Amino acid sequence: MKPKFTLREIYGDDILYTPRTPFSDNPWMLNDVHKLDALTSREVLFADVPVLVHSATQTAQAKALLSLAGFTPPSTIYTYDTEEAYHAHLQNSDATIVCQYLHEAHQIPRDRYWMDAEKFNELNCKSYIDQLIDAKYVPKRFTVKLADAPATISSMTLPIVLKPGGDDPTSGGYGVMICHTNEQVTEALRQLRKATTEDVVVEQLLSVKANFSCQYIYTKELGIQYLGASEQLTDEEGHYHGNVIVRDVPQRVIDVGRHIMECGVAEGFVGIAGFDLIVTDTGDIQAIDLNFRQNGSTAMLMFKDSFKKSVAKFMSYEAKADNATFYTNIVNCIKEGGLLPLAYYDGDYFDEPVTSRFYGIWYDDSLEQIEMRERLLL
């Protein structure tokens, strides 16, 4: 299997890629240390540049899964076990840093980023969408002070969506609060006050006919390239639970995504980006989230041309029973074919009991066949 592009082709030769969420307080980020460390190895197969990952993703068992799938485990890997070791790698490297989220200035100096660091952060803030793209592609929304939010909400019809409007980026649906009732509005406002959020985005919840996550890359050499699209799987609270590939995407949706990418590039963006685009019941195309960074389904779209199957699904899993059984089930599924391993976080690496995690891409003739094999895995 070959990726459509590598991080080397997108960001250049002399870079160090760190997908790790910064070790700093952010109320709108997942606070599960093991999950955040497990995610660090998700893009290794299409990197072709040094990547900073947690040591538990590079054990003999983890590398064996890649070998079983026909991959040679990459040699350009740096590992860390602690926050101190993580920061030491970043500070001791002379390479340009490519990351998923803005770090504190003392962790990564602003002149070490592959693009303007403040602009990178700004592009990923929830409130910036109004300033970036054509208003006709943005749902009815208001960015207001938290104290003024109740009055704004009272002028709108439920359901609505509340999002933090400050400089802190969000991830995986955290900070996106869908409110169908007044009780949910009250709880969402309480969470925003608890996080000392100053600005709030109040957005009308759309009536959805189709939901696409369209991804693009941009480099000066390649220009803007469309990677593909997936459908996001989320729970009732809007939290992210994987993606299924979508091969038949309306050209209008792709064109709107390209418009958004063009706007980002005009402001200096270079790299991979993914946009959540809604087709409403009335046929309008609306952008509800802009992610100017790698997305959960980026790896799936990078390898989509290699699958030779009509359906693919990216998903993450945790061991439900014991780690040994979980690992054996993964091995058996890879041997059967139709499962591309991306990362294995080996819980047995630690002295204390830790649940193992696995990230992979299924590919088959139907989603039903994939879901049947998922049940066998678990």
Automatic annotation (TrEMBL):
Keyword ATP-binding attached: yes
InterPro entries: Asp-Met_ligase, ATP-grasp
Residue ranges annotated for the ATP-grasp domain, each copy included: 130-320
Keywords assigned: ATP-binding, Nucleotide-binding
Keyword ATP-binding attached: yes
Molecular-function annotations in GO: ATP binding; metal ion binding
Gene3D superfamilies in alphabetical order: ATP-grasp fold, B domain
Stated name of the protein: ATP-grasp domain-containing protein
Species for this entry: Metalysinibacillus jejuensis
Organism ancestry: Bacteria, Bacillati, Bacillota, Bacilli, Bacillales
